[in-house]
Structure formats: C-alpha cells, structure tokens
Design brief:
It is a single chain. The protein is an alpha+beta fold. Helices cover about 35% and strands about 20% of the residues. A five-stranded antiparallel beta sheet has the order 1-2-5-4-13. It has a five-stranded antiparallel beta sheet with strand order 3-14-15-12-11. Strands 6-7-8-9-10 form a five-stranded mixed beta sheet. β8 and β9 form a beta hairpin. α6 packs antiparallel against α14, α11 crosses α13 and α17 runs parallel beside α18. The longest helix is centred in the last third of the chain and has 18 residues.
C-alpha cells in the first residue's frame, strides 16, 4: 500500500473544521446566541461542530424524516448528550440525577456507552442548558465527551481486584483531569459563568495542551488490568496495560495507534491494533500521555479528516520516527515492555466478592439501553445503595462495593425486577452501537436489530449443543466502529438498510483483528453462512478452542497481521 498518499494530503489546506475551531474563540463560537434562538429546534452546522466539544451532537429522528418532509416541517431535531465519567465510576446520587434527566428531558431511557459513560437521547434545544447544568451540579460533566480532544478515559472496573482497581482508577481520573480542555467557554455557555476576556493571554495560557486548534481528530485512552482486556486496550489511541508484581501496581506497558474506524471504498483507511512500545513507571503515565498527544496535535492530518486519526500519523511516518519524537519530547526513554497475559475481554456476571470483602453485582444490560423495569429496578437500588455504580466497557453496570449486610436487600430488588442475568452467553458477550433512528451516520440498524439476530444465532448454537459457548459478537450501523466490531469473533458492520458486511476471526481476548468474510448480506444469508461454520466448530474444535481461533485455523479467513490488510 502506498502509505505516502495520506502523508501527501498533510500539505493541503486545512479542513473547514480546522477553520471553525480556530475562529471559535476557544469553543465559544455563536453557541450562546444559537441556543437562545427559538425559531428552530436545530442549530447551524458550524455551531454543531463546536457543540461536540461540549459533549453533545445535534440529531434528528430519522424514522420521522420522510413524513415531516411531506408536511413541509423541519426535521425532528433533538440532541444527544454524553457524560464524561473517568473509569465509569459514579455515585448512587449521580445515577439518580441521570435517571431523572432521562425521564424529564430525554426519551425516557439511559444509554450506557462503550466508553463507560452515559448518553441521553432526545433532548430538545430549549432543555439543553438545564440538562447540562444539572449534570454538572452532580459533579459529572460533559466537556470533552465528544470533539477533537481526549475523550472519556476508560479503566477496567476490576470487581475482584479491588485494591488494584482503586489505584488504577485514580490514575484514570488524573489523566482525565490533566487532558481536559481548559477553556472557560463551557462555564460561560452552560453554567452562567462570568465571561473572561483577557487580551494579554496567549493560546498557551488558555489551552496549554490543545492550543487554539485542539487535536486533528478525537483521541481515546484506556487502561487495562490483565487478565481482563475489557477496555479493548488495543483499540485505543493510547492503551496502558497495568503491570502488577507481588500484588502491587508497578507501572504500565504503553501501546499506541489503535483505532476502529474506516471509510468504505477507501483502502487507506482501516481498523488498527495499537502496538506496545515500552513500559513506564506509574508516576510517569501523565507525562507520557501528554507528550504522545502533543505529537498527534503537531503532526496529525488537519487537511483530510478521515486520515486524521493518530494511527495514520504513526503509519505514515513510521514507528521509529514516532519513538524518536516521543523520547525527544520526554527527555528520557521508555523501558522494555513487561510480560502480561489477557484471558478475556468480557464482563464477569453476577455476584463477585472483592478482596475487601465487599460484594459486586455485574448486571447484563442489552446494548446498554436502560428502560422500563430495568430502569425502575436500578433506580430503587440507587435509593438504598451505599457503594458506587461502575459502568463497564461492554455497556453493562456493576452495582459495586455492597457491604455483606446489605447484599440481601440488593438481591431482593434484583429478584423483584427480574434482573438476574438469565441471558445466553452469546448475548452477554454482545455489543451494538446506537445506529438508527438517531445516529446520522448509520447505514443500517444495530441496537434495535441485534437482539433479533442473536435469537436466530442462539438457535444455531443450540442445535449443535453449543448453547453455553461464549463468543464475542458485535454489530455496528456504519464503519466508524463505535461498538469495536473489528475485534469481535463475529461482527456485522452496516452497509445499507438490512445489509451488513460480516467479519470473522477476532480473538476472544481482543488481541487480533477479524477479517471480511461475506459482503453486503441480509439476515437469510447471514444465517446460511454461519450455519455450516458453527456445525464444523462443534465437530472439529480442539478442546476449548475459541470460535475466532477455530475460523483462523480452518482457513475460513486468514489472520490479519496489520490493519492495512483488513479489506484483503
């Protein structure tokens, strides 16, 4: 592949988004005035670009588009609001605030994201300011949950390694705080903060890390604690792998350049696994993250946004160049990587007792959508729970740090609302993005369709006696990869309404990309394609061989050595 085709575009004129950021006066733009406009429920595109940095996207209900067009009405505009919660840890009080906002201003449901946080859907423009005010008052916030900045820092919830989790979680919070935007625009627009105008301040004074143009694209950081890779650490721009020796955290292996997105029809875009480049002591993790991010700030593609992710910056210039640049900025060198081993990338369901003797209950939430009896039950738990809630990278929730004397009471509520994890292993290892009707990028259904497809695949497995088999399965409505489909043993990426590309061969531990098996197929073809493979898997697997390993060994697809041969 001609890697320098992307590199050549670096010299082109900046994209329109770069101009919008530069002219925005550090993310202010005309957002304040636009929000006061009562004529339309929408906002101009330039302001929508800036709105992302504040944690929100303008969307519309695509189910209603045609009918509203017939009636000569503007689209059914609404906003998605995303919260930033490092490591996914929230208090019962914060849970109750999000529950209340979902019912009062949103569509009556909460969405748990694949980055361990909350999303609200269906908020009208005139309710946006109050919604964000109340989120902020709960000591959560939305700043930097979207946009060309570092997003929510992920962290393994570790219910059975409480002492390690506490330390790693603190580092995730410190990373999140250090890499958050510093502009006062958020407080001015949403919290009625005083407007601060100081013409003597330089851009380095206002945004010491991001400067006035921020990053070329979004940036993602996750911290994994082996043997669990639930954060899919190799999907991150920067992945930190906790190294535990003698039951103590000694530091982190550093991985760089992961990313799940691609663009159909462009072979110069592809999912990519992050590469482990070294080890750093715990106290150096913030310095390492900042210096890596500033390399992307200074060298990332600001001309063509689809080439602007960090993985392409490294691929275009080479890993040796990157390492030299990083060590030059650090003024010291990373150590050699330390040994580690991952065994799975899913959640451990049900009750688990931690090292501190507190109990933790992991509840499966299909596709992260909390509504109806699940919402009511979790609200009742939040009203009595004295520990915390931990949102997992797999769209589930852990009712964490339950003292032994309170476990029975929580258990009674779980039983009352039938929140008992009776779903199949296949379903419990599934993830879907939101897709239709709200995501403007979706080409096909995902959240609304995957449960139906899973029922049919569950039957295939049951027919072969594999109903208890765990297989990582994911669906995305478009190739941007929000559900991290490129790492699944079986994945479906939307191509058109009712049509998907099917990929096979990812690893159960999230350490290998899958590969295209069938293109542009519907449900009938999906089932017909999987049926013989599942049959052969049942008859020819070796011991406890995982499904993804089996399809590689049997040659259904070839193992991918890098993201660049994802389409081959």
């Amino acid at each position: 592949m001609e890697q320098n085709k992307r590199l050549q575009t670096h010299d082109g004129p900046p994209s329109d988004v770069e101009w919008i950021k530069t002219e925005s006066n550090f993310l202010r733009g005309t957002l304040a005035e636009t929000l006061d406009d009562q004529v339309s429920a929408g906002i101009p595109d330039d302001d929508n670009r800036l709105m992302k940095f504040h944690g929100s996207y303008l969307q519309d209900d695509r189910d209603l588009r045609i009918e509203r067009q017939k009636q000569k009405l503007e689209p059914a505009y609404q906003f998605m609001v995303r919260v930033r919660a490092p490591g996914g840890v929230t208090t019962p009080e914060q849970w109750l605030v999000m529950d209340e906002l979902a019912r009062r201003y949103a569509n009556g449901s909460l969405r748990l994201t694949t980055r361990q946080s909350f999303q609200l859907h269906g908020i009208l423009k005139w309710n946006m300011k109050q919604t964000i005010k109340e989120i902020n008052a709960s000591l959560l916030n939305t700043l930097g949950a979207c946009g060309d900045v570092n997003r929510n820092v992920m962290c393994n919830p570790n219910p059975n390694q409480s002492h390690i989790h506490a330390t790693v979680y603190e580092w995730s919070k410190k990373l999140s705080d250090h890499l958050s935007p510093r502009t006062n625009a958020y407080h001015e627009i949403w919290l009625d903060g005083e407007k601060v105008i100081d013409s003597n301040k330089t851009e380095e004074d206002i945004e010491p890390i991001y400067r006035s143009q921020y990053l070329p694209r979004k940036f993602k950081i996750g911290i994994a604690v082996p043997p669990s890779n639930d954060v899919d650490v190799f999907s991150q721009d920067i992945g930190f792998i906790a190294i535990v020796e003698n039951a103590q955290l000694v530091g982190f292996n550093v991985a760089v350049g992961g990313g799940m997105g691609m663009t159909y029809g462009d072979p110069y875009t592809y999912p990519q696994l992050a590469r482990v480049i070294g080890f750093c002591q715990s106290e150096k993790i913030i310095e390492v993250a900042e210096k890596i991010m500033t390399i992307q700030r200074d060298f990332g593609n600001r001309s063509v946004r689809k080439y602007a992710r960090f993985k392409y910056t490294i691929d275009d210039r080479g890993l040796d160049w990157f390492m030299a640049e990083l060590h030059d900025r650090l003024g010291w060198k990373l150590e050699e990587p330390r040994p580690y081993q991952f065994k799975h990338n899913g959640d451990r369901y049900g009750w688990i007792q931690g090292h501190d003797n507190n109990w933790h209950f992991t509840l499966f939430v299909q596709n992260g959508r909390i509504r109806d009896h699940v919402m009511t039950g979790l609200r009742e738990i939040a009203n009595v729970h004295q520990g915390d809630f931990r949102l997992t990278p797999n769209q589930n929730v852990i009712i964490a740090n339950v003292p032994h004397e309170q476990k029975k009471g929580i258990d009674n509520i779980l039983e009352k609302y039938q929140l008992t994890n009776n779903d199949s292993p296949l379903r419990r290892n599934s993830i879907a993005c939101v897709a239709l009707p709200t995501c403007g990028l979706a080409m096909a259904e995902s959240e609304r369709y995957l449960p139906t497809l899973l029922t049919k695949i569950e039957q295939l497995l049951a027919n072969e006696g594999l109903q208890d088999e765990e297989i990582v399965i994911r669906m995305s409505g478009c190739p941007n990869g929000c559900s991290r489909p490129a790492l699944a043993e079986i994945a479906f990426i939307g191509k058109a309404p009712g049509k998907y590309n099917m990929y096979l061969g990812g690893s159960f531990t999230g350490e290998r990309l899958n590969k295209l098996y069938r293109e542009n197929i519907g449900e009938v073809e999906i089932i017909e394609s999987l049926k013989p493979i599942i049959h052969h898997y049942a008859k020819e697997r070796k011991g406890s061989e995982r499904f993804g390993d089996f399809v590689i060994r049997k040659g259904y697809v070839n193992e991918i050595k890098s993201g660049q041969d994802f389409h081959d």
